[in-house]
Design goal:
With 340 residues, this protein is an alpha/beta fold. It has 14 helices and 9 strands. It is 35% helix and 13% strand. Helix 2 runs parallel beside helix 3. The two termini are 30 Å apart.
């Protein structure tokens, strides 16, 4: 689909990012939501089912469930089962620590439930420096069980300057399990805001990563890196910011935002306890604003048709304004730098 067709937004989101709980057994230094403690006003099971009824009526295709650690919710499988019964695909992102035999067996009994396990390095030293001591071992134990039960899963890596050198090893690891590698972009939100400058890939690494992605078409990115399309050939995927246009985010207490990286007061669309998400999707002022929005500072740039100004969340948290270019903009590089 073209940019101009998608820019005004779809009549319903294709997918929802649902931060099901803020409770977490890890303290990852780059956590986008600063998770740790459970919210006292977390949505109940019945409220979650009501939301799923609304999403089914909207014909949402799938839900990406994160947190926190979603598997800490005792009713996680009830929510997942209800979603699948409503015809909505359900994917859970987990740190893997709770993927014991009993949990994996339950996942195996729900063939429509997709699993994504987080690993930010191909060895314990690299991964654990970000995700905590012992996190690599626990994730690998979970991966072994998932593979042993024949469950379809993917490995997700948040790209940092330290993990960059291990992309090939991570790709080989995923393939060894018959799984796929997904690489996500680090953004300066949540706890990640304080660590972003330390962890973010260097400019040279971003250029090399663009070429690496083009030579690894089987690697998933979820449109995290569409800003790199300014380097030349556009990367596969949507190729633009989908916040409020094709997706939005639901927090543990029912607040709705354009995306998981824009959880900030000025981007609040409402709360599902007061108004159905379907109504907010249609009428919320912030969604209407973003559907018409284009990054002011990028107007006139010859690379705008490729990158569309990049990630507005990265711009907002790094520069304080939506109107500035993506802080990792590559469009201003010289030809020699762009093709290095």
């Amino acid at each position: 689909m073209s940019y101009e067709l998608l820019r005004p937004g779809l009549v319903a989101p294709l997918c929802i990012t649902w931060e099901l709980t803020s409770a977490c057994n890890f303290q990852c230094i780059h956590c986008l939501s600063s998770s740790g403690e459970r919210a006292p006003d977390e949505l109940t099971l019945e409220e979650c089912k009501g939301i799923l009824d609304d999403l089914a009526e909207m014909k949402v295709f799938y839900i990406n469930v994160g947190g926190g650690e979603p598997l800490l919710r005792g009713d996680f499988f009830d929510i997942a089962q209800y979603s699948l019964e409503k015809g909505i695909d359900f994917q859970v992102s987990t740190n893997g620590a709770l993927l014991g035999e009993a949990v994996v067996r339950r996942i195996a009994d729900m063939p429509g439930l997709r699993v994504q396990v987080s690993l930010d390095g191909a060895d314990p030293a690299t991964n654990d420096a970000i995700r905590g001591q012992g996190s690599y071992r626990k994730a690998r134990e979970g991966l072994e069980l998932l593979a042993g039960y024949g469950i379809d899963f993917s490995i997700n890596c948040v790209l940092t300057r330290f993990g960059f050198l291990q992309l090939d090893a991570l790709c080989d690891l995923a393939r060894s399990y018959g799984a796929r590698l997904r690489v996500s972009r680090l953004r300066p939100s949540g706890r990640g805001e304080g660590k972003w400058r330390l962890l973010r890939p260097t400019g040279e690494q971003n250029i090399l990563f663009y070429h690496w992605l083009r030579s690894h078409p089987d690697v998933l990115t979820g449109d995290s890196f569409f800003f790199l399309s300014a380097l030349g050939q556009e990367l596969d995927g949507l190729g633009m910011c989908g916040a409020g246009r094709i997706t939005c985010c639901l927090t543990p207490n029912g607040d709705v935002y354009p995306c998981a990286f824009l959880i900030w007061p000025q981007f609040w669309a409402g709360n599902v306890r007061q108004k159905p998400l379907s109504v907010m999707w249609r009428d919320a002022p912030i969604f209407r604003k973003l559907r018409l929005y284009e990054v002011e500072a990028c107007q006139g740039c010859p690379h705008f048709p490729s990158c569309h100004g990049g990630c507005i969340a990265a711009s907002f948290f790094a520069t304080g304004s939506l109107g500035n270019p993506d802080p990792e903009c590559v469009g201003s590089l010289s030809f020699d730098e762009r093709t290095a």
